[in-house]
Every structure is written in structure tokens, then in C-alpha cells.
Design a protein that fits this description.
mainly alpha
Length: about 270
């Protein structure tokens, strides 16, 4: 397949378009009343987007799509070795990358050192479309390294990598959105896609719920691997979002969040 032209422009356009549509949809059909200042939260979350972008540009000047094109030219990776191309490669590559993201997410919850990084994502006291971008720059760098390793190992095509990055960004913003979907639609949609109600459980203050529903795009991994929780114990309207040790929004500024890996660590109980 021919490598896509201007992949970064395509990604940015898709990101801004999805963000704008979901932000508007949240205003029209909000699922929950917000408990903290949206202005403060969005200032922080937009600052994190900028920090993440700078770190990625400095540490990884070669984008995953460019790396995939290089692997394709040199015949690196299993797909290239066995001549797997076309839609079989696209679908297989998308599923492999999505499974890797699911496993990576579980790993970042299970390993204390990695949890120190990832817990920044869970400090948001409300969740909405902006929370889907709230990841520590070091976690973003590690995630990028894992993704690029998988791209090289399997020889995933540039088109598939670009599609996956667009889908991952879009679904992350969608399943974090404070968006009310009719119960009947949510029930059927979550058989194919992680919905906001499904992923919101993952942001519960109860660790047993936080350690479930790890998927970002496909819901199948949680169901197949035993990490699926259908509903929060306190219900979607009454559940508390965030972590017990980070409850003051005035102490959750951008600089404080960037220092979170060095904050005191407390072993989580399942209560």
C-alpha cells in the first residue's frame, strides 16, 4: 500500500474535528453534572496536550507512520515476510495494535512504577472529552516506544498505523465524553465499541472498578480476558470519579500533575 501523504495533518484534522463534535455533544446531552471547575480542568488538560506533543517531537522525531513505511520498503516484520497485504493486513494490524494497547493499559495499572505515571490520567475529578488526552508525557513516550516496536515486529503498513492512530484518538475522546446515550443504544453499541458508560466505570474511585474496562476501542478484550464490569456499583449519576488521594482541584495544576510520579505512593485497597 502507498504510504499516506501528510499523515500528521490528517491526524491533527481528525483530532480537532472529533474533539469539537464531542465537546458540542456534551453540552447538548450531558450524562453527569460536573463537580469541579471545567475551566480549570480544561486549562490543565490542554496544557498536557501541548506538553505531550513537545515530548513526542523531541524524543521521537520519526513518526510511527514513517517507521512503518521504512519497514515496508525493507521487508521487515511478519506481515512483509509472509506477504500479508490488503484488507487482511489492515484488519489484522488494527486488532493487534488494539490488543497491545489493552495489555499495556493493564500493565500500567499492575506495575507500581508504571502506575505512578498512569495515575495522572485518573486524577481528573470529572471525565469528559478532554480527559481522553490527559496522559503523562513519560507515559506517552513509553506508549509510543511500545507501539513502534509492534509496528516493526509485525511490519504493519503505514496506512494501518495511520488508521489506528486516528481511531485510537477518536475512541479515547468518545469513551471519555460526558455524553448521554440512550440505554438501548449503549447496550448494543458496547458489543462493538467501548462506550462512555462502559469506560466511565474505569474512572471510579473504587480500585476494583478502576482495575476493569481497560479497552479504548474494542470491548472484546475485557470480556474475553475477565476484566469487564458492566455498571458502577453506585450508578453513573452518583459514582465518584478520580483517586482517593487526589481530591483537591486546586492542587491538580499542570506542574503538580507533571510531578505526580514523584508524589507519595500508597498501595491501593479494593475498597
Amino acid at each position: 500500500m502507498v504510504p499516506p501523504a501528510h499523515p500528521e495533518i490528517i491526524r491533527l484534522t481528525a483530532f480537532l474535528s472529533v474533539f469539537a463534535v464531542l465537546a458540542l455533544a456534551e453540552v447538548i446531552r450531558p450524562r453527569r453534572l460536573l463537580t469541579s471547575s471545567k475551566t480549570k480542568r480544561w486549562q490543565v488538560n490542554v496544557g498536557i496536550i501541548i506538553a505531550d506533543s513537545l515530548v513526542v517531537r523531541l524524543l521521537a522525531p520519526i513518526a510511527p507512520v514513517t517507521l512503518a513505511a521504512t519497514a515496508q520498503v525493507h521487508g521487515w516484520g511478519l506481515f512483509n515476510l509472509f506477504g500479508i497485504t490488503g484488507w487482511i493486513e489492515v484488519i489484522s494490524g488494527l486488532l493487534i495494535l488494539d490488543l497491545i494497547i489493552y495489555l499495556q493499559h493493564r500493565l500500567f495499572h499492575r506495575v507500581p512504577l508504571l502506575w505512578r505515571l498512569h495515575r495522572m490520567h485518573h486524577t481528573d475529578l470529572d471525565i469528559d472529552v478532554s480527559t481522553g488526552t490527559r496522559f503523562h508525557p513519560v507515559e506517552i513516550a513509553l506508549s509510543l516506544a511500545i507501539k513502534m516496536t509492534v509496528v516493526l515486529l509485525f511490519g504493519i503498513s503505514p496506512l494501518t498505523v495511520l488508521l489506528f492512530e486516528i481511531i485510537l484518538n477518536a475512541t479515547s475522546m468518545f469513551n471519555h465524553a460526558n455524553l448521554a446515550l440512550p440505554t438501548s443504544i449503549d447496550r448494543w453499541l458496547r458489543l462493538m465499541l467501548v462506550t462512555p458508560d462502559m469506560h466511565r466505570v474505569h474512572h471510579s474511585i473504587y480500585p476494583s472498578e478502576t482495575d476493569s474496562n481497560f479497552g479504548f476501542c474494542q470491548p472484546w478484550w475485557d470480556r474475553l480476558l475477565g476484566t469487564y464490569t458492566a455498571q458502577p456499583r453506585d450508578g453513573h449519576l452518583q459514582m465518584r470519579i478520580g483517586l482517593k488521594e487526589f481530591r483537591d482541584i486546586n492542587l491538580l495544576g499542570l506542574w503538580s500533575l507533571l510531578k505526580i510520579p514523584f508524589a507519595p505512593y500508597r498501595v491501593r485497597s479494593n475498597r
